[in-house]
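Put briefly, the fold is written as integer tokens. One such record reads:
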Amino acid sequence: MTEGAAANGVEPGDLTDPAAIEAISDLLADGTRLLWIDVKDPSPEEMQRIGEEFGLHPLAIEDAIHRHERPKLEQYEGYVYIVFYALEMSDGRPTTREINLFVGENYLLTVHEGDLAVIAETADRWTDHLRRHAPPTAGVLAYVVIDAIVDGYFPAIDELAERIEDLEDDIFGGHALDTQREIFRLKKDLLAVRRVVAPERDVMNVLVRRDAPLFTEKEATYFRDVYDHLLRITDIIDTYREVLSGALDANLSMTSYRLNATVKRMTSSSIILMSMALVSGIYGMNFVNMPELGWGLGYLWALVLMAVIGGSLFAFFRRIDWL
């Protein structure tokens, strides 16, 4: 399914008709119009025809078809190919959605799978931008798309942060194994986000330094704002990863503490029982010449002796906090 929009007015149009796709080159020839075409779930044949209309390099078309590319920026004659990832939360876990951007002198072509909220948000932002800024350019339109993508990272990061804050109660709540699983899940989620953000930061650095001649100094100023956001997100992720490393150490320490406390209790109980068993064992040897065997109070004496020994040891272990 292919949809188009005249970016100056953000007017959606249907490009599912092959004749409409073939008209793209005519629209591009109109230097007075800024064209934004958003392509959702294109077939290889559709993408090939669209690429031919835009004059895209076969390798760039192939990357857009097969997807799962690393975030990157590639410069071709007359246009720039950018790969970025939108971030969405699904069942509390972050998922990434690839967006391919082809930015030319007077057009922006976006290619992606499925419906993306960031595309609808971009249309709203672009309408607002047109009211406040003029004239519109393809570079600024690309900035609006990328800025909407990056702004979508913050709610996902905040949701992960809430899960990290909940770990404190779990660590001291005695659920060591479940807590450890959650820590590793969070570390994996943060790593997945960082694998996207880090190369995107490098892409924006190229645009900020104006290593891509297609973009003007004014457009580079807009990209610098996105670059700052990506730097901030990277710092937040690194901070949370350090917090999780500390939480993992704390969880292991609490597990060791609980294990040591259990061993102390078992050791204390064993010593008390063994001491009492020593008394009963001595008087259970049944030798002939044992004076206490003929004593009328011998049984009571043995019980009292065992109680005194057991009570003394119990008091001692309580005092040293072993019981």
Summary: The radius of gyration is 35 Å. DSSP finds ten helices and seven strands in the chain. The CA atoms of residues 13 and 187 lie 43 Å apart. The beta strands are 2-6, 11-14, 35-40, 72-76, 79-90, 93-104, 107-112.
